[in-house]
Specification:
Layout lengths: L1 H5 L33 H18 L2 E4 L20 E4 L4
Antiparallel strand pairs: 1-2
The structure holds protoporphyrin IX containing FE (HEM).
Length: about 90
């Protein structure tokens, strides 16, 4: 139950708040131990490149389905897809 662990109020202050600058952020998003995500360093590089660029180019976006459809997987829980409307896309 990685998603639940990442929102454990005994471990994280304001666990439901999206806080990309959170200090002491020993989360389980990439799992832990021997099966720790092999692609975690690449995923972090991609996120550091893509997310600021997306925020720079998009002035407004909103969820088209709220909540979005979730995968039927309690262990690796997350949206199956995340349809959003994007406006103000600049080059
Ligand atoms: C934000 C992006 C990503 C997230 C959140 C993520 C998350 C995870 C998690 C939670 C696991 C453990 C799954 C389990 O043991 O049940 C895992 C394993 C793994 N991930 Fe990722 N991953 C991401 C991106 C990537 C990328 C970009 C690659 C490859 C280029 C990758 C390759 C792998 C591999 C090969 C494993 C299996 C490791 C093993 O079992 O020893 N992942 N990942």
């Amino acid at each position: 139950m990685l998603a639940a662990a990442n929102r454990d109020p005994k471990r994280f202050e304001n666990p439901d708040r999206f806080d990309p600058d959170r200090k002491d952020n020993e989360h389980l998003g990439f799992y832990t131990g021997i099966h720790y995500c092999f692609g975690a360093p690449l995923a972090r590089i991609e996120l550091h490149a893509a997310v600021p660029e997306l925020f720079r180019r998009v002035t407004f976006s909103r969820l088209l389905e709220d909540p979005p459809p979730y995968r039927a997987n309690a262990v690796l829980r997350g949206p199956r897809h995340l349809p959003v409307a994007i406006e103000g896309l600049t080059a």
